[in-house]
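Illustration 12: Putative glutamate--cysteine ligase 2.
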Amino acid sequence: MTSGPCPATAPADRGAYPYLGVEEEFFLLDPGSRAVASRGSRVVARARETVGDRVSGEFDECQVETKTPPCRDGAGLYDELVAVRGAAAAAARAEGLRICASGTPVMGRDGPAIVGEHPRYRAGLAQFGTLLEGFTICAAHVHVHLPDREVAVLVGNHVRPWLPLLVAMSANSPFLHGRDMGYASWRTVIRGRFPALGAPPYVQSLEHYERLTAALQESEAMLDANTPFWDVRPNPRLPTLEIRVMDVPADVADTVGLAVLIRALVVTAGARVRRGHHGPETCGELVRAAYWRAARDGWPGKGVDALTGRVLPSSVQAARLVEHVRPALEEHGDLDRAVGFLRRLAERGCGAQRQRASWRRRGHLADVVDDLERMTTYGRPGEAGGGRPSRRVDVTRG
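Figure caption equivalent — predicted structure in token form:
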């Protein structure tokens, strides 16, 4: 659940490669206990003094959300993500807190859960009740400029079979309140208990899509037909297609790698839709099974290829995705960035694997949190957007 303005809203020239933007959600941590701390409103107020509404509140007061402006390329997106993460981290430090990128809280919380004041959050609590208990999760959302809503809902048909792979690549939530849950993305499991949340259904047209959302709202399985929480949706307020399935990565370079792959997938699908191809009618149960397997195993591991039903290594599926979207990646100079992301996955695994490696070093969950906080805030020196050493990575010091 997000609030406030979203990225990728700048108009693209007709025929131009579309802008993209990213929203990221972070936990606020007490640096002593490493537990999440419910002081989001205070951190947001401080951040707004420097970056305005690019830092906002979230469903739980122990979270904040950051937003980039529209970006043309991966280098620009990297720099914007580093800057806004830095602003959020600086505001948190001013309140005696830290920020941390993980899909679920690694350790417990200081005090009771406090739901944010946004009317939509309050309405959701009234409608879904105790189902929202423990719904304290952090995601990354990628927006791609796509103002034609008819095209956008059909592009969703093409993107839908690839969503489980995005879960596996971004999986970064193995721990919850001090316990290893046995899954790479426990955030995905938490989301799966809700009706009308997850992969969108196959639709034949925008009119079909709107009939479905209206029926789901009437059934009360969906809060608002204009704001579905499916993992691919035309944004209800902005001319973008929004992909919402990923855990938030700790490494900003991984967020960028995911974003450029997603933009290439949307561009490739858009071209097919305009040629009359409405997308594969992938079985919903197969997609659901693929989500579950990706959430359990993450990367590396094997997963269900929702296009064929075969169980394949995630690396094989990712290589197929790159080949599928290669022309779009090459068109805007994103191929090296996408391949670099897959290389990092091959070398160190997904975020869940890195969290568990941190824990195994000494058996202390505090080490997991500290490693996540360092990566979230300071990144890796020399990993700048344009391939040059970055002077903006360590933005909260000095």
